[in-house]
Design a protein that fits this description.
The structure is a single chain. The protein is an alpha/beta fold. The strands form four sheets. It has a five-stranded parallel sheet. A three-stranded antiparallel sheet has the order 10-12-11. Helix 1 packs across helix 2 (109-123), helix 1 runs antiparallel to helix 12 and helix 17 (387-419) packs antiparallel against helix 24. The longest helix has 37 residues, at 40-76. It is globular, with a radius of gyration of 35 Å.
């Protein structure tokens, strides 16, 4: 074993110890994952699906935000935005301001602002600026950021204007300089291209092009910086047509909390609301997961982990998509048979050319083993011994798997359409809840399903016909022959229901409320209950035509559920396209920083993989980084830690590393190097939040955390 160099402190860098053993050549895949030489097909399929997810996510985001973005564009393009017009009724010092309510899903805001900037630059004005709070700690920095972005984006491609930009950058960053630059640029913008003229058709003059400043994270800005900037800009409304857009995550009251009335009165504010993140997630779920054309699938537990992170952490659809992409990456990296997780024709072609190793892997799949057990003895022998026969059977099973998905999703949507309007949502309000129930167990064996059928059995005629029409619309988009037959049967039921004339729910044989004889007799509770039960039994025996037909419809729906909504894990070769390792996903996405830090400091071997760092429980390795030694020593102390005693214990451990006698004068001597390393380690402990200085004793620090990981 090669000698491993000692490290002084983790604060000085990250150390990588290379093993002496030779590793085979690998190819780097998506996101840093390593695939072997035979994983090129998996990498290609994974990369293709990755791009599909990215493209569909952006399309969905643009479609959902189209309404609010178009409203913002119309707000900025209002006629008479120039300060000399009488159409726009506002004071000359007021700045038009849009308060954009985006919600608490902060990770999704970046894509929304990117789409907004592109839309405004293409159709409204080239002068669009977006600023972050972390870049604008002072009003001078905010003005400088605005000038930098305007000079880069507002100037056209003429070479002469590049010289003007360079000269402007050398001037002082003030609003006065911005006024001068804006006049110069708008004069030169009179000669614009025909495409730009079409985009700017709502503006009569190029000089009226507004300057849009987008505050992406309005709540994070320092109040005084915002106030000063607004006051300065309000003095130049005659020369500069400013328009502000505040990106707000909480509520419109945030403007009142951040700005006093003297400043907010200078703004003409209009509120715009973006779509909630819950419908956004539903759209992504329908487009990517409940889609037979998307071959990669998630198991019920993986979906529950991703939805749980969405609901209880950040409400971020982007993070949900990242979790889906990570699941895809992990699946293709850990499952060699994922080469079959692709479109039908490509999967069948891959099944024909399976290697002997992959054929053996198929034989060890739990779903394939269950399939073999259901075959005849002679067929079982062929499946276990003949590789070519396994390839043929694999093609057949892949066809059945694709057919299962094409029939599964339309029936799932029909069942959700029927039950989503029922009281108390017995099968869940969202389709993802119903989908999770279907793929993890037999839905028809649950109490919720029985409750839903009971509620469907008491639907009125109009309600039942309307629900069946929705199902028919869903099935029209299905392409399989079986779904077309189901659609034909469903339309037949609808026609028969509409052909029925009004049927009374009570017949003439005494199914009224109470008979004339009982009306004048005093009866006890038992006798009344017995009489009502007898009437109910007579009613069930003699159903009218509508009740008979309604019962047939419910039985038909029940048969579809039992036939097509079987659990996915019962399908042979489901492991090819279903990712089910929810533990790895939870460990990677739902991390706990404090636990990770404590693990790294208590057991540095867990991350560094250095053999010299292996220690028994309760011992401290002298080869560990300084921070780990100081951390373990502080665990042995109480609420207050004496810095001198702490330093003495640290030097004792370090002396053991140098093979010095701790009882000798040299071993116990505090040289300047050890003292400096100790001070640096304690500073890192304070930065991580484990200790803090205290006024009780000047030579002590207070411990802030208790308990290990």
């Amino acid at each position: 074993m090669s000698e491993i160099p000692l490290t002084s402190s983790v604060s000085k860098g990250c150390f990588v110890f290379k093993s002496a053993s030779k590793k085979r050549k690998r190819h780097v895949g998506v996101g840093g994952y390593l695939l072997d030489d035979k994983g090129s097909d998996r990498f290609r399929i994974c990369q293709k699906l990755w791009e599909t997810v990215q493209m569909n996510t952006e399309v969905i985001q643009d479609q959902l935000n189209k309404k609010v973005l178009d409203s913002l564009a119309e707000f900025i393009k209002k006629p008479g935005r120039g300060c000399s017009s009488d159409v726009w009724r506002q004071r000359a010092s007021e700045i038009p301001t849009a308060a954009l309510m985006l919600g608490v899903n902060v990770p999704d805001h970046a894509m929304t602002f990117r789409s907004l900037c592109n839309l405004l630059q293409d159709s409204v004005t080239p002068f669009v600026v977006s600023v972050h709070a972390k870049e604008c700690a002072a009003v001078k920095l905010l003005i400088q950021k605005v000038l930098e972005q305007l000079m880069g984006r507002g100037v056209s491609e003429d070479e002469e204007q590049e010289d003007d930009t360079a000269s402007l950058q050398r001037t002082q960053c003030t609003i006065s300089a911005l006024c001068q630059w804006y006049k110069t640029v708008t004069k030169k913008c009179t000669q614009v291209s025909p495409r730009r003229k079409e985009n700017l058709k709502n503006s009569d003059l190029p000089q009226n092009l507004p300057i849009v400043v987008i505050f992406k994270d309005f709540e994070a800005f320092i109040s005084q910086v915002l106030q000063d900037f607004i006051l300065i800009c309000s003095r130049y409304t005659q020369e500069l047509p400013f328009v502000f857009i505040f990106g707000i995550a909480t509520s419109p009251s945030a403007i009142q909390h951040r700005l006093p009335h003297s400043v907010s009165s200078l703004l003409c504010i209009e509120v715009f609301h973006s779509l909630s993140c819950t419908p956004h997630l539903a759209s992504v779920f329908d487009k990517l997961i409940l889609n037979s054309q998307f071959p990669f699938k998630l198991s019920s537990r993986v979906i529950q982990v991703l939805v749980g992170i969405f609901l209880y952490h950040d409400f971020s659809v982007q993070n949900f998509v990242k979790g889906l992409q990570f699941s895809m990456l992990e699946h293709f990296n850990s499952q060699p048979l994922s080469v079959l997780c692709c479109q039908k024709q490509e999967a069948l072609l891959s099944a024909k050319t399976l290697s002997k190793q992959n054929v053996e892997r198929i034989r060890h799949l739990p779903s394939f083993m269950r399939y073999v057990e259901t075959r005849e003895p002679q067929e079982q022998v062929r499946l276990l011994t003949n590789d070519e026969h396994v390839k043929e059977v694999c093609q057949k099973l892949l066809k059945n798997l694709h057919k299962y998905h094409k029939n599964y999703y339309p029936i799932l949507q029909c069942l959700h359409s029927l039950t989503s309007s029922l009281p108390k949502f017995p099968l869940g309000k969202h389709i993802r809840e119903l989908h999770v129930s279907c793929i993890e167990k037999n839905l028809w064996e649950t109490e919720e399903y029985d409750s839903a059928l009971q509620l469907l059995r008491i639907l009125a005629k109009d309600e039942l016909v309307a629900a069946l029409r929705k199902c028919a619309e869903i099935l029209k988009s299905a392409c399989t022959k079986r779904m077309k037959n189901v659609l034909q049967q469903l339309e037949d039921f609808i026609g028969r229901l509409e052909a029925l004339e009004g049927v009374s729910s009570e017949d003439s044989s005494g199914n009224g409320i109470i008979s004339g004889k009982m009306e004048y007799q005093r009866t006890d509770l038992f006798q009344l209950q017995k009489t009502l039960l007898e009437k109910e039994s007579r009613r069930t025996k003699r159903m009218n035509p509508f009740e008979v037909l309604r019962s047939d419809v419910i039985e038909f729906i029940d048969s579809l559920v039992r036939e097509y909504l079987t659990p996915a894990e019962l399908q042979p070769l489901n492991e090819v396209c279903y990712y089910s390792n929810s533990g790895v996903l939870r460990q990677r996405l739902n991390v706990t920083p404090r636990t990770s830090i404590q693990t790294a400091l208590s057991h540095p071997f867990y991350y560094l993989q250095n053999e010299s760092l292996k220690t028994d429980t309760g011992t401290i390795s002298s080869a560990a980084p300084d921070l780990c030694i100081v951390y373990k020593l502080h665990l042995e102390c109480g609420r207050l830690i004496n810095l001198y005693d702490w330093l003495e214990a640290f030097v004792t451990v370090m002396s053991a590393a140098e093979d010095q006698d701790t009882n000798s004068e040299e071993g116990g001597k505090f040289d300047s190097l050890k003292h400096a390393r100790f001070i640096q380690a304690v500073s890192e402990m304070e930065f991580l939040g484990f200790v803090k200085s205290t006024k009780q004793k000047t030579d002590h620090v207070a411990r802030l955390t208790w308990g290990g990981c």
